[in-house]
Amino acid sequence: MAIALPCVAALGRLVESQLFGVKATDPRTIGLSALLLATAALDAAMVPAYRASTVNPVEALRLE
Prior knowledge:
It is built from 4 helices and no strands.
């Protein structure tokens, strides 16, 4: 998000021309987009973490 927010500011006119009725610096749109990206990242990280937490450590070490 630290990289994306300056990009949003720099590409503001492009965003305004592509999306009808949305300003490039609309805090609601930026906030919802950031929330969506954070949720997707959390979901992508939680599935492998959950699978790894259900493995018995002794069995995992035996397989190596």
